[in-house]
Amino acid sequence: MGASLSVDHVVDQGKAILLRLCGRVEAEQPSDTENLYALTRAATAEFNLLDREFVAAGSGIETVAREWICDEFCFVASAYGFTDADAEELTAGRDW
């Protein structure tokens, strides 16, 4: 049960990364996809660090979670009007 609580805490951190990404998009209002990609790369770097926490908690970012995270990045891009954003570019630099 302790490991599950640890993983839940890390999942919450992942949600917080996505919320911070939204906040940054709203605050900085990127003018084009390249500027958006700069914001998503920073969030991707946070997920890279988070993966290490998952590993320390006895887990890791699994395939289904990776796909979900990438889908969320696409959703965020689309929600802010970047419907032409490339899914791979949104999470460029990921190591999970």
pLDDT average, as an integer? Answer: 90
- Outline the low-pLDDT stretches: none
Number of domains: 1
The main β sheet shows up as: none
Number of helices: 4
How far is it from the N-terminal to the C-terminal residue, by CA? 25 Å
Radius of gyration computed on alpha carbons: 14 Å
Tell me, briefly, the overall form: elongated
One letter per element, helices H and strands E, the order comes to HHHH
The total of beta strands comes to 0
Helix content: over 70%
User: Which structural class best describes the helix and strand composition?
Assistant: mainly alpha
Instruction: Give the percentage of residues in beta strands.
Output: under 5%
Pfam family, one: DUF5713
InterPro entries: DUF5713
Features:
single chain, 96 residues, mainly alpha, 75% helix, 0% strand, DUF5713
Question: Strands, helices and their partners?
Answer:
Elements (H helix, E strand, L loop, with lengths): L1 H27 L4 H24 L6 H17 L7 H4 L6
Helix pairs in contact: 1-2
